[in-house]
Predict the 3D structure of the following.
Amino acid sequence: MIISNLDKIKIVAHRGGKFDEENTLANFKKALNYAQIHPDINFMIELDIQSPKSNIDGSNGDLVVIHDSTVNRTTLGKGLVSTYTQNELTSLPIRNLNQKRVSIKHRKISAPNGLPLLSVSGSDRRIPLLKEVLDITETVNINRLNNNIGAIGVGIDFTHVASRFERFKDHVLYPFLEKLNPGSQLSKVSPPTKLLEQLAFEISDKKRLTPIQLISQGIYSGRNLSLLIKLIEKINGQFHLAIQASTSHFPADTISLKRSLDIGTKSLSELIESKRFTVNYNHKWDRRAFWFKHLARIFGLRINDLYSLLPKNVALSNKQAMEIASDQGFLTGFWTVNKYKHIEKAIKYGTNSITTDFPNKAIKIIHAMKAEYLAQTNPKIYQIDNAVVREQKKIPQIIQTEAELISGD
């Protein structure tokens, strides 16, 4: 493992991480504070957006940050997000779902390195507007860039705009039917035009310093991304793209990708060449393939390799898929990786990014790997106890001093 590669790995805090309740303003503030404590880490916060009810005058409401299409799971409210106005959504009480949340007892205004931290109050534990999250991230990034520290990115997942049954069709049924009859399913669902138009508008600030990554998944991600790219190009906005591949059955060459995503050749080539296109793989897929192989043996099916059933231009195992995609010029990543052993494996595969609920785990592993590398290459310059390195990987919680710095309840 080359130490320079460790410095480039992007750690993506899934829904803000487990610092507080998912996709709340408090959670994003704490995630940003954690990034301030670790300025050596390439950091991004990931969030999900939905469209609220239109305003009385008929105009679109500002996009809100929430994963589900209903408010039932994460708030004390009931019903579809689209039946609430933005003001009603930001006022809904939040459910206490995150039992692993770190208890914060002290407040500080700066990290040990002198970088300022955001203040967090109980009123921040609510559904935020997308523009609120972008604004606080921009504030943090202005200070970081003034101190020659890389900016924190924001990943915006606009996939979860349908009901649970519609998502099942999008991610399971239609992809299966599409494999049987290519091209048969791509015209079945119209893209969420209203949401995409509003998203393009809200990220259109040309002076914004925060790197924006647009994330989509499912068989219709290409249709959605194609429209979104056209909307953004009208305003000459800068953006990165990420495709969430639910399995490794994902085209790994540019020709197949262009066909499946319906993205113009020029746009696709520019995104790849400028390193602004990431393919994220579900880290659980290899394990599912492993069990499929054994079930096939139990039922007497002569399948030595699950991937032998697939067309040659379709990716194989996660590692093979990443290697092929990397050779084609794509950036690659894993999601959602929460166990130490899986995070470490993903890093050793050579991934460019790791999406996780526990950024602290990924950061500890990166620091431990750096320490091991330096201890091996410069034993006289950099002394470290290997037992401490091993212990670092096992600690499941954020150490108390860091917890105090993330700001308080």
Q: What stands out?
A: The longest strand covers residues 42-50. DSSP finds 15 helices and nine strands in the chain. The two ends are 40 Å apart (CA to CA). Residues 102-106, 384-391, 393-401 have pLDDT under 50 and may be disordered.
